Amino acid sequence: MSDNLVSCDWLKSQIEGRQPNDLVVLDVSWSSTKDCHKDYLKEHIPGSVFFNVLDLAVNTDLYPRNIPTLDVFQKAARDAGISNTSHVVIYSNTDHCSFFISGRAWWTFQICGHPKVSVLNGGLQKWKSLGFPTTDTRPDIRVGNFEAKWTRTLYRTFDEFSEALSGQKIQVCDSRGSDKYAEHGHIPGAHNIPLSSLMDEEKKEMKSVEEVKKLFAHAGVDLTQPVVTHCNSGMSSCSLAFAAHLCGNTDVAVFHGGFTEWKTKASDKIEKSS
After folding, report:
1. Considering only CA atoms, which of 141, 136, 143, 140 is closest in space to residue 46?
2. What are 20-32's pLDDT values in tens digits?
3. How far apart are alpha carbons 8 and 74 in whole angstroms?
4. Quick check: helix, strand or coil at residue 53?
5. Of the candidates 258, 239, 230, 6, which has an alpha carbon nearest to the alpha carbon of residue 107?
6. Has 36 been annotated as catalytic?
7. Are 122 and 53 in contact (CB under 8 A)?
């Protein structure tokens, strides 16, 4: 495991060793079809705090999964007990071995100025499969002192993305399913690496770094060069960016508006697979 991806065994050892004062564990589970907070109230990893990262933003047609303003995110993070020195560990109980939303939460913390954040490999599903304990007891929370600051390294606007694409300065990676990539069309030159392909569903976790590197290489992506990921609206693309980062790419970003914004503003620049 790396600092960005931690195992259930590691987290369990931290909790059993009287969870360090600077460790904050967040359940970031989210679904468009159910209230994940109710699930959290029934069971969660001991000591974890529920944190709905998508509920903090005002969404629009162009940005249906928008990002929060810094002041809103700062207050929510502080209320969850997060300080500037906190090590935040994110987990969820969602699709793709929990990475559908966990990667988005990781990315949001990054762009809001808190790089000390890790994702629990496999999330709650992996945790429970190992027979590790859950609880319905909510922890006492001491309000933190986290100070949010805009950190744009992992963020690209439409204009920034378009300019880099036209200048052939980036490799574009599309994390949508291969069916949507083919049927709905794609951004010119985009390499399709579906989020699902990164997961080992049998083990309930992300594939090894070496396996993930091979997936990027097979798709024609050079991880030593700049990469920008996208999906429809900035969800699975965050986990693909996380995977590239995990593989050692130091120049990876997410085109937040994704295909939703692209087809609205550049409908004449959509390729279809033959």
Report:
1. 136
2. 779 999 999 999 8
3. 27
4. helix
5. 239
6. no
7. no
Q: Which two tokens stand for residue 47?
A: 């000591």
Helix axes 99-111, 236-246, angle to 10 degrees: 70
At residue 6, the 3 state secondary structure works out as: strand
Under 8 Å between Cβ of 172 and 187:
yes
Long-range contact pairs involving 81-85 (C-beta distance under 8 Å, separation at least 24) = 81/24, 81/49, 81/141, 81/142, 81/143, 81/144, 82/24, 82/114, 82/144, 82/146, 83/22, 83/144, 83/145, 83/146, 84/114, 84/145, 84/146, 84/147, 85/22, 85/116
The token duo for 192 is: 């399709």
pLDDT per position as a tens digit, 193-237: 999 999 999 999 999 999 999 999 999 999 999 999 999 999 999
Q: Element (H or E) spanning 90, and its range?
A: strand 87-91
Q: Maximum CA pair distance of the chain?
A: 57
Q: Are 127 and 120 in contact (CB under 8 A)?
A: yes
CA angle at residue 100 from 97 to 105, to 5 degrees?
115
Catalytic residue among 8, 36, 231, 238: 231
Q: In the chain, which residue ranges form alpha helices assigned H by DSSP?
A: 8-16, 36-42, 70-79, 99-111, 123-129, 158-166, 178-183, 209-218, 236-246, 258-265
> Can you read off the two tokens belonging to residue 22?
């600077």
- Is the pTM for the entire model greater than 0.90? yes
Torsion of CA 231, 195, 8, 105, to 10 degrees: 0
Q: Give residues with Cβ within 8 angstroms of 23, minimum separation 6.
A: 14, 86, 87, 89
